Amino acid sequence: MKSKALITLLSDGQVHSGESLAGQLGVSRTAVWKQIRRAMADGFKIETIRGRGYQLISRVDLLDYDAVLSQLDPTLRPDLALRVLDDVDSTNAEVLRQIAEGGKGLPVTIADCQTAGRGRRGRTWRSPRGENLYLSMGLTFHGGFAVLDGLSLALGVAVANALEQLGAADIGLKWPNDIFLPTGKLGGILVELQGELQEGVVQVVAGIGINVHMSEAEGVDQPWSSLGSAYPGIEWSRNQVAGAVISAVLDAARLFSDRGFRDFRGPWQKRDIFSGKLVQARGGEINGTGCGVDENGNYLLRTEQGVVPVRAGEISLRVAS
Ligand code: BTN
Prior knowledge:
Elements (H helix, E strand, L loop, with lengths): L3 H7 L4 E2 L1 H8 L3 H13 L4 E4 L3 E4 L8 H6 L9 E6 L5 H11 L4 E6 L21 E10 L8 H15 L6 E3 L3 E4 L2 E11 L6 E10 L16 H4 L7 H22 L2 H9 L7 E4 L4 E8 L5 E5 L2 E5 L7 E2 L2
Parallel strand pairs: 4-5
Antiparallel strand pairs: 1-3, 2-3, 5-6, 6-10, 7-8, 8-9, 9-10, 11-12, 11-15, 12-13, 13-14
Helix pairs in contact: 2-3, 6-8, 6-9
Bound molecules: biotin (BTN).
């Protein structure tokens, strides 16, 4: 975003004269005016107050590299290769590129906007500029693909806990990878696997999308929610949410490496939105009551024939109507 420096200066909501903005940005007053026009074309509402200057009216919550890092435990910071981008096709794709480049540190990418955000099952993930969190992290595990059972559920628990600590009560999890509020889907997790680089070493890209400020989502075909609309009393900052989620995912990945899914199973079941509900799987082929997950993260349905496990990736679950 070309007008980021200008918006940062205006983000205090005060009136700034063209002269002072020009001085601080090191450009002419004409250049300031051009930047104001460009920022307005990017969707920022800026008022020109005659004889006084410019005032930003719209809410801004800019992503900032240092602000994200400042949320993390100082001991973690040197281990991360953090990229904070204005635009990217997909943060998952960017982390895959970071891995291919082979630099130092655990790859983490956050972007202000995605032009080709990816959802599960080949869907597009709506990623409007400045509204939400689009975050991906490259995680390494040892022991081959078999050790990854339940990983995406464990990450869901980590994200839910992090959001709860920031004040979002009522976070539920919808098997396998959705973060839910009572009013609808708040976010999702897309785990993509890279082949084994060396024997037994698996590289996972964990992509996390959380609706933070989004207030309209044309064409989204299911109920959805955002932190801002569900908890209007909290001043949500994407940098803070990013920091909290990164820390939680790092902790969860460490625990998962040591102990697998077992420590996450109980916390996952507590947030299970299908628990005790009549649920359909395989397009109606199986009907049963939701009763949590097994030790591998498969969903369990209590049916007339007994408890049936439903495998991730196989089907989607929906409440029977
Ligand atoms: C879902 O379908 O529920 C999963 C959505 C995952 C979206 C996130 S946004 C950050 C990361 N980059 C992507 O392209 N997708 C994931």
